Amino acid sequence: MARYRGPKQKIARRFKEPIFGPSTALERKPYGPGQHGRSRFTRKSEYAVQLDEKQKAKYTYGLLEKQFRNTYEKATRQEGVTGEVLLQLLESRLDNVVFRLGFARTRRQARQLTSHKHIVVNGQVVNIPSYEVKPGDVISLRPKSKNLQLVTEALESYSTSKYKWLETDKKSRTGKFLNLPVMEEIPENINVQLIIELYSK
Q1: 90-148 pLDDT, tens per residue?
Q2: How does strand 138-141 pair with strand 124-125?
Q3: Per-residue DSSP letters for the chain?
Q4: Structural domains in the chain plus CATH codes
Q5: How far apart are CA 170 and CA 152, in angstroms?
Q6: Mean pLDDT of 80-88
Q7: I want to staple 63 with a disulfide (CB 3.0 to 4.6 A). Which of 68, 154, 159, 167 is the partner?
Q8: How far is CA 123 from the centre of its chain?
């Protein structure tokens, strides 16, 4: 299973955002990594700014370059505003939905839950993190997986009204993907227009 295996905290400090979840390293050192991390002279070219935004989106949703490019190309073929469709496709990934429903604290944990066959979609076990969840789909945990400590701890700190396009039932460990979110509802700090400009060159 292809995924990023490098240092997470350096990436979080590079973008100055906790894109992998809460980061004590970022709190201690709220500046970029390396000997030039504290430098005030961080002027970047237009291309560098666009590339950084694409890299941030990739790391946030846990995709590699080819996966992300394929998702972008799929978004360009669909009706609607490409930037919004791209974010909707990323939000519809099963690993992301499991994370948003509160079954895992991070997308990495959600990816692991999915690949280890703990997740059920509409009554069928699905172990593909990139599986595209559709509006109306019901996501739950397998009966034997409902009392996993990881899931229990994640749900304890989860607010069921956090995302308008999802519905979570903590007691039954089930959730529902109600509809595709609009761009304004997605909490990630990603400027998709910069990504579109980068790929349009």
Answers
A1: 999 999 999 999 999 989 999 999 999 999 999 999 999 999 999 999 999 999 999 99
A2: unpaired
A3: -----S-HHHHHHHHTS-BTB--HHHHH--S-SSTTTT-S-----HHHHHHHHHHHHHHHHT--HHHHHHHHHHHHHSSS-HHHHHHHHHHTBHHHHHHHTTSSSSHHHHHHHHHTT-EEETTEE---TT-B--TT-EEEE-GGGTT-HHHHHHHHT--TTS-TTEEEETTTTEEEE-SPPPGGG--S---HHHHHHHHT-
A4: 8-89+189-199 (1.10.1050.10), 93-179 (3.10.290.10)
A5: 9
A6: 95
A7: 68
A8: 24
- Give percent above pLDDT 70 in the chain: 79
pTM of the model: 0.83
- The two structure tokens encoding residue 18: 């906790």
* Averaged pLDDT, 67-85: 95
Euclidean distance between CA atoms 17 and 15, whole angstroms: 5
